[in-house]
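ugh ok fine here u go
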Amino acid sequence: MFFDLASLTKPLVTARLALDLLDLDSDRRAQLGFLDRREPLTVRQLLSHSSGLPPWLPFTGQSLSDQLAQGFPEGVHILLRKAVPGVVTYSDLNFRMLGELLELETGRPFAQLGAEASGLAPAPWREAPVFVPDGPDAEAWRAARPEVPLPPRSPFLPHDANARAGMRGHAGFGASPEQMRASLTAWIGQGFPRRMAIETARSTDGAAWGLSLQRSMDGHGRFGQLLSRLGRSFTGIHVLADMDDALPVLPEDPEGPAEGSTAWWMHFGYTGPALFVRPEDGACICLLAHRRGPEGELLDPLRINARRMAMLRRFVESQS
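structure:
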């Protein structure tokens, strides 16, 4: 079994490289071409999604600073909207910039740097993961740049249209369960979760982000509620792989109100995987799932979270 890790690339590859190789607080405006930006632009902002960069823009080979200077059709798609510096807006563009910075400062390709640091497999892959239909990024591409065709599909390249077009930093890595376990063992052993689990910025809904990890919150229907049932005696690294296309029943309230933070931090991948880690002792659960439904359709956010919740619930119950 082989899985497209999608945005799990952010904490497992890009953030670990940035924390080891980049100064977090130097102003990077000139280096990245943002000469008209008023606020400083730092690696710390990029890692915490608080830079003020929009969620997404097509990767056509043009520099991001030039794209932003030209403008984009704001509001025609949920991915095409502006953001405010200092407030979390989850954005693939933050990690595109980190990937570019890493290449600028090391003189080496991002995929090569990431493979050496993480042990994960950079695309193109020898083994194809589960096919995932096009999703919102393809719709947003057509809305933003209708005159530019989407990059061609290949089963051996990442799902995300940006990654297929060469976007560095936010996607592009895959793994078998065995590779994932080895990579997580090194990632935790080298202390990266502790370095990332520093509350740095908040989104408008109060969600707290560290440096590439989000704080897990407690409350009915939330992942943190299940994770809290494991208790302090729970230890180890657990990689759970699931190739089942069947859908779990949606819970009545899949995302209840937050009732406080937990000791766990998390990150999700667009194609289905999820990562939960407790930095204080390195306890870790990785769900390797995919986002295809029983009819071959792309699962919506509620359905993919229901699949993740079902996987996590089965595991938690097996530990009691």
